């Protein structure tokens, strides 16, 4: 969405990079249970097309001797919502207009089985800050450990675009700071071949509100007035919800809905999705059997525009094709 000159001027362009990168977040401890896990799965489309789907019932219901329900890997993306106001940060030295915030990219690493109930602790830090001229780009890293333990379950890294907040450094040498290696981020190039699999999912008109029950409480996803002020015709689906739909498509297609096969998830948010639209995820499988990468691109069927792209790393997978 293009910004008007008045909107750009309205942003208080007072960013202090030294204060931001040195900021120490308090640790945040919280608990979740199987109700939270099941509610999240329903929020990203599990069982929406078929309430008796054998592969997806295991995500919401204990049956056939299951000791616990299975946890979708993208459930861990909801952990970032447990820290204060989620991605709407209150950090000394960081001044921006919340209406101009965009979640641009997201990266997840999963280090072991995610329990269906646990008490966990988020350890949060600024992983990057970049001056892109018209925007500031902030990267937020969240490590989640079992409470009282240093055993890390997963890592979320969110890339946040603060439109109108750039220009806080010398344009000839713009400020750029990152705590991780550049080769951890890879651009997605799609092959010219026919996709290995295609999966279609229709979102519900109430999908964003249902996702909000998992912690995605940004008013952009529920408040029509706020959404209009941000330039959207209606509240939009959370990007991380769209990611949940896409990773479900990958799991259905390539690893028999086995969460343990998913080790890394990378995505770039390209365009908004309105609740009620149909998502079509195209997937290309590459690599050796023990460790394969699925490149995916999700489009909205009604207008054909790509809304999400990225890759998922699978290990010890069993193909569902």
TrEMBL record:
Membrane-crossing residue ranges in chain numbering: none
The protein's name:
MaoC-like domain-containing protein
Which SUPFAM superfamilies does this entry report, sorted A to Z? Thioesterase/thiol ester dehydrase-isomerase
Name the domain of life this protein comes from.
Eukaryota
- Residue ranges occupied by any Peroxisomal multifunctional enzyme type 2-like N-terminal domain in the UniProt entry: 30-164
Q: Where is the MaoC-like domain?
A: 191-301
Coiled coil regions in record = none
Q: What is the lineage of its organism?
A: Eukaryota, Viridiplantae, Streptophyta, Embryophyta, Tracheophyta
